[in-house]
């Protein structure tokens, strides 16, 4: 049980310069006894309102040095403070505020919300067990207008999809990775590096791009690049929900539409997902 959707803004001041973190937290506990379920005995139950207040107090006292560290702080607090807690899981996601720039100069106290993917993390721990940390990015919308196709796929009597060697590749990406054994990582630096890997693997070199024969191959390229460059990541899950665009037929309007005006296909949409990890992690 626990408290969901604990939303707050943490404002930090360094002289005239301000820093903000707006987050949403979900904190869930498992107690050592199920007596509140079986017997109606609430003597061990930590009220969800108390859970909310603890999260807010920790934000006030410790700040939010990184999303992952804040999630770890919450787990550590419940494990060290309450002997009746057997398991704690914390989810934290961030509102994408970025510092506003005017003529290239960063503003000291103004920010803009830029929807270029939502950062999130999870931390969970069992009593006498290891602390496990996951991080990720979701709702990241990506598009490239060429260097993508889909050909040579299996066909039968139900197949109507034509083969395409040049199409728009567009999708909404969800990516989540595990750090394995939690150490003193620079979580902010790692998250930014992984995000850069995702963008690079999706788009290819800026002057020419890179051909994608399928959404599945693009997912694999993202995973392989992250695992090759970020040694701290042990397992990475990627889900890519596809957005298709159809070329508008303008022949009855007396026009030739050479893939210049397209309309999105809202539903149904395709999706591909894969989890890839280091062999040593699965062997362990």
TrEMBL record:
It catalyses: urate + O2 + H2O = 5-hydroxyisourate + H2O2. Coiled coil: none annotated. It comes from the Eukaryota. One of its GO terms (cellular component) is peroxisome. Keywords: Oxidoreductase, Peroxisome, Purine metabolism. Its EC number is 1.7.3.3. GO terms for molecular function: urate oxidase activity. 5-hydroxyisourate binds at residues 48-49, 150, 167, 216, 242. Catalyzes the oxidation of uric acid to 5-hydroxyisourate, which is further processed to form (S)-allantoin. Belongs to the uricase family. This is Uricase. It comes from Callaeas wilsoni (North Island kokako).
């Amino acid at each position: 049980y626990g408290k969901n959707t604990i939303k707050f803004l943490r404002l930090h001041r360094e002289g005239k310069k301000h820093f903000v973190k707006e987050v949403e937290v979900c904190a869930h506990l498992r107690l050592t006894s199920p007596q509140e379920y079986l017997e109606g005995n609430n003597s061990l139950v930590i009220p969800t309102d108390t859970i909310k207040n603890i999260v807010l107090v920790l934000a006030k006292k410790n700040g939010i040095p990184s999303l992952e560290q804040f999630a770890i702080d919450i787990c550590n607090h419940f494990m060290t403070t309450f002997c009746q807690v057997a398991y704690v899981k914390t989810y934290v996601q961030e509102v994408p505020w970025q510092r506003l720039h005017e003529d290239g100069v960063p503003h000291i106290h103004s920010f803009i919300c830029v929807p270029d993917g939502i950062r999130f993390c999870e931390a969970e721990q069992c009593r006498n067990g290891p602390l496990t940390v996951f991080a990720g990015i979701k709702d990241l919308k990506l598009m490239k207008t060429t260097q993508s196709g889909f050909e040579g796929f299996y066909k039968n009597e139900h197949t109507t999809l034509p083969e395409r060697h040049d199409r728009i590749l567009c999708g909404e990406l969800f990516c989540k990775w595990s750090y394995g054994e939690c150490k003193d990582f620079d979580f902010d630096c790692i998250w930014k590096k992984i995000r850069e890997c995702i963008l690079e693997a999706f788009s290819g070199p800026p002057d020419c791009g890179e051909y994608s024969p399928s959404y599945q191959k693009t997912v694999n390229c993202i995973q392989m690049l992250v695992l090759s460059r970020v040694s701290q990541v042990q397992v990475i899950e990627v889900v890519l929900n596809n957005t298709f665009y159809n070329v508008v037929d303008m022949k009855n309007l007396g026009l030739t539409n050479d893939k210049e005006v397209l309309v999105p296909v809202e539903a149904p949409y395709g999706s591909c997902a894969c989890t890839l990890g280091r062999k040593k992690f699965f062997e362990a």
